[in-house]
Structure formats: C-alpha cells, structure tokens
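Hi team,

As requested, here is the filled-out complex form for the alpha-D-glucopyranose run. I kept the field names the same as last time so the parser does not choke. Let me know if anything looks off before we queue the next batch.

— J.
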Amino acid sequence: MTLKTKLTYSIIFVFGHVALAQNYEAKVDSLMKLMTLQEKIGQTVMYSGSWDQTGPIVGTDNAKYIREGNMGAMLNAFTVKGTYDLQKVAVEETRLGIPLLFGYDVIHGHRTIFPINLGMAASWDLKMIEESSRISAEEASAEGLHWTFSPMVDIARDPRWGRISEGSGEDVYLASQIAKAYVKGYQGDDLSKHNTILACAKHFVGYGAAQAGRDYHTVNMGEGELRNVYLPPFKAAVDAGVETFMSAFNELNGVPTSGNKFTLRDILQEEWGFKGFVVSDYTSINEMILHGFAKDSTDAARIGMNAGVDMDMMGSVYRKHLKELVEEGKVDEAIVNDACRRILLAKFKLGLFDDPYRYIDEKREAETKYKPEFLSKAREIAAASSVLLQNKNNVLPLSKETKSIAFIGPLVKDEYDILGNWAAKGDRKGKAVSVFEGVLEYLKPNQIMYAKGCDILKDDESGFSEAITISKKADVIVLVMGEGHHMSGEAASRTNLKIPGIQPKLIQKIREANPDKKIILVLMNGRPINLSDEVNLVDAILEVWFPGTMGGAATADILFGAYNPSGKLTVTFPRNVGQVPIYYNMKNTGRPIPDNNPTEDYKSNYIDSPNSPLFVFGHGLSYTTFKYADFTLSSHTLSFSDTLKASVVVSNTGGFDGYEVVQLYIHDKVGSVTRPVKELKGFQKIFLKKGESKTVTFILTAEDLKFYNSEMNYTVEHGEFEIAIAPSSDFKFKNSFILE
Ligand code: GLC
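And here is what came back:
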C-alpha cells in the first residue's frame, strides 16, 4: 500500500475511530468530506469484467476507469487473482483508495450448482433454501465476490416468460417467505465476516407481469395488484435486511422502473425506509431512451439519478453526464451524495475499508469450492425440489433388480443443460452428475440400455429406430427429456409450452411400440410445460427442473426409492398456452362456472378447453399416501386482538416414510375490493414414518388477513373467511370463521 494511501487510510482511520462509537454513517461522512464530486460519481458507476457475459457486450476500459476513480463496482469479475489485480488498482492507484465492490449472478450456486430457483421453491423447505444460499455465499466469497444479484423475487404467472425459472412462482406468501430465506443465507448475521455477501432483491418491480410473457415487454397493472401481489416479496426482502435492490427493465404503467420515482423513492425509500442502494439492471437506465421516456443519455442519467437509481450498471451515463447535470442544477448534488453514501455504507459494512483484500485468500479459494458437504447438500436439495406429477399404478419407485431398463432421450447423459440457466461458474464440462451416471449407483451396466433418440430442438428423426428397438427389449422405459437450459431464463420467452422439438413424437412412437410397458418421463425444464399429451402416453412424470451439479444422482435416488419425492408445484401447469396466465389465487368473476355444469352457457369459461389447469399450485405426489382428518378451529370467531388456531391430523397411510407439505388457505368471502378465491397463508413441511400421525396447527391473526383496499390502505375487514388445511390448492372449503 503506497504512502499516499496509508495517509488517506490513516485519515479515515482517525475519523473512523473518532466515529467508532457512532456508526458506519459517521465513517462514511468523514470519507465523503474528502471526496470530489467526480469521485462521488465514480462510486455510482459499475462495469463488467470478462469472466462472464450477462448482457450485450459494451467495450469498457476497466483499469482506466478504476484509476480515474470512475468506477465503484464491477460485475462478472471474480477469482482471487482476478479481483486482487483489480482491487489493487483501486486501492493503490487512486487518490483515496476506495475499494471496489465485486458482484455476480450467483442465484442458485456459484460452483456447486443447486436446482434452478423455481425448482428449489418446489421444495417448500425454507431451511434448505437458506442452506443453498449460504453455500453459494461461501463459494462466491472465497473467489473475491462481495455481492450477488439474488434473490430474484418477481412473482410470475405466465410460463411463456423464460425468467419464471429464476423466481419462486405465483404465490405472494410463499415467495415472500422464500425471499427472506435467500437474504438470510447470503448475508448471514454479520456482513463484516468474509464469508457473507450482499444480497440484491430484483427486479424492482412488476417484471414478471410482462405483456404476453414476452421478456422486457410492457407492464400495466393497477396499484392494488402492484401492492397486493408484486410488491410484497420485495418488502419481505427489506424486512429481512437486504442491502441492495436492482431496478428492472420494464416500464410500469408508462414509467420505466429504472426511472420510476413512485416505486424507488416513494415506496422503497419513504414507505419502507430502505437504507441500502439500488443498482440498475444492465444498461436499463440508457434503455429509457428506447422506451421513449428519455430524450438522450444525459436525460436518462438525470431521470435515473433523480428517481433513486444509485448505481448505473454498464450504462456509462452516470460517468459521462452526472457532473454536468449537477453543475447545471438538473440533479441536486445532495442526491448524488446520497447515492454515493449508500454505496460506501455497504462497503464499510463488508469491512472493505478495514481490509480491502479480506475476500482475497488463495488457500480458502482452493479448499472451498465443491466441498463434499456442499455436493451432498446439493444432492439432497435437488431431490427435495423434484415433483412427482403422475405415478399411475405406482410404477415408481423402480426396483434395482429390474432386468433391463432403457434410458432414452437427449438429456439422459446431459451434464451441460442440467445446471439450468444463470448457473454462474457451474462446470458444464464434466463436473455435473448426469442421470445416466446417477443410475449407475443402482444398476449394473448390463441392466441398462441407452439411446439418445433425438436432440432437444433439431428435427432429425434418424435416432428414433434405435430408441424404439431398445425400448422393445427393455422391461421398463425411462425417458429423460425437456428443454435446453437456454430456453428459459433471460430473453427466452416461448409462445409454445410443449416439450420442444420432436421429443413428443418420439414419446408417441415409443408408446405405440410398447402399449403395455411401464414408461417414466423425467422432465428437465425451466417453466411449466404443457403435458396434456404426455399424461396419457406415459405412466409416471417426474419433474426435476434443471436439478444442478448433483441432479442426476438425486434423480436416481428418487427413481429407485432412496428418496421419497416430496416437492410441490409453486406454479400452475396449464393444459395449453391459451389458458395463460392461469394461477390458483385468481378472482371468482361474476359468472364462475358451476362445478356441476362446467359447460353451462354464459359463464366464464372456454368453448374449447376446461378452465382447470393440468396440475395445480401445490400439487405433488409421494410414494406414500397421506390422510387429512379432524380439522378443528379454536373458535368460529376471530377478533382483531386475538388469534385463531386451525389444526388437522395428518397420517401417513402408505408404505413409505415421507415428507408432506401441509398448506393453510383462506378465502375472504366479501371485501371492499374483490379477493382471490383462495390464498395461501401458511405451510409446514412435516416428516411422517409409515403409519405415523401428527397434529399440524396453524395460528392465524387478523394481521394475516390484511390487503390493500381501493384507497390503498393496508387493512382487514370484518366478515366471513373460509379456511382449509390441504395438501394442495385443489380442494373445496368446508369451514369458515367470522372476523368480528
Ligand atoms: C441481466 C439480468 C439481471 C442480472 C444483470 C447482471 O440483464 O436482467 O438479472 O443480475 O443483468 O448480470
């Protein structure tokens, strides 16, 4: 460290120690007194390193900008060596030596890759989700990273949208609980520890409601929908102490969310008291020009900073224009100071001013990635995230003594797509365990036959005959098919929800050649798939999503019964794309179709499809069976100051020990605004041995029943509420209570 930097640090140190008794804010203020306007602007600038590409390439001279004090953070730069070289420039070659922040999209693992987030949500296991993000933070921080752009907390109800894969699905309550688990896992209980990293709630806000499920498309919704559906998971992240937010690409009701004062300042800062900083999405500030909301890049910078976007990711507009905007009085310097302060506060909390190299430890880097305990946890989570959608005649689990099993499909031996999208630095060349490799733990080679059959997307049928030939020879057929990892995630919307390519045709041909044989479909995909044909062609369907590094091992554990599947859908699977958007907590309408006459005239239905989905929110089978009985309520009335207990006795009535996700739903029958026909308000994941029973109790308060009414007051209203405890959202209410 040069003498100059030592002097600067001693000034900060002195100020810092003077301020020690106060807090980080005082230290930040001391430092900012030393900074020029351009240096403060420099903190609001973020560029990408070359270790990964997560958006359109924009050529930047990173070392130059760092030396000029024109960069406060980098994305896509990691490894101890890589971050050390860059951090050294910032700390030792700039006037004040302010350290850089290094951020990356570690959203379901850094090296050890867990199932995609939509998959992990299906575990309904908050502890596991927190463990996955804790491991992600261990591996990421061991490679010099301070910050992850996760959790993605966008509610998504349209499977055409590829980014449905990155979130926790359609339900507000569940997505809010999961958001908290991720934040806790990444940030831990002490950000000054070198194995904790900043979390980032993204994409603020409404991104998942993109028109027609087309990525980056227009979003329009009433403020009631915004506050009752799309904002709550972000508020949950704030309540969990999330240190950063990311503004989104989409416009919301005509105002781009990266220039939206209402959401960024009025709600996030004023209403919620958020003290962290907001980073834009990748060039999303500049994109306000294309939105037709900013005249040029100077105007975009003005709008973004004034609206509350503190850091410009890859856009260069803050670096180029903020100084002149302040000098011309178009942006108040106090606003730039506030943005800079928020960013410096995060750096102080991480301990980067005590030691800018504290995340730089080659020994730790070498011994952290892929720790055996990380891989075994990844295997456990992948199994818990899998959802058994169908299991006719209990064809699963398979016996290890099965004489011959034909494994067919483009994803049987896959070690590349299995990691899913946004797999950070997951190794796609040989580290992941394919399904084929996984089943070798259970079967001898002579019990296995294999044929790829076809590709995921190509329409070359030349592999069909080999696949059909081995299918005829086998006792059981296991198909491993689905999407490529690039078919979901960012910029990956689909208008067709079928299994892609000619895979469906191969399934058809294999069934025709084996009319009575057991056929199991293992599905890898990043969104709800239209399985309307497949449910009639195969006996069992196991949804494994993109299950990650240990996915093939976990899949084999389920296929052969070492793990009894317990996952439950957090997104509705439609019968066809025409039903979309379709989700369980919809409104009743004034003409709901009667159960006893689904085709009655002048009702809210289709003339060419049922209203009901193929698989509902909360659906997931087990190898055992569970019985729900003896539902009881502690009272049939609830006062505002009281609590209501709802209980049920759940029994394992089948032949396997297993987990069950017990769900609590309510329905507010009459409101000053219409209320959803069902709302999840609680869940408990329990383990029951064969024959065991357990009483599961939920405690409800009036607070749990609140919603935003037409005046945007967060309130609860007297009246009758239906209530149920069920294994999925597919049930009829039988009980109710009165909120007095
Ligand atoms: C991308 C994504 C965002 C990601 C960011 C940085 O465009 O929208 O989720 O965190 O850029 O890679």
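Two things worth flagging: The first strand starts at residue 45 and ends at 48. Residues 54-55, 75, 105, 149, 202, 281-282, 490 surround alpha-D-glucopyranose (CB under 6 Å).

Thanks,
J.
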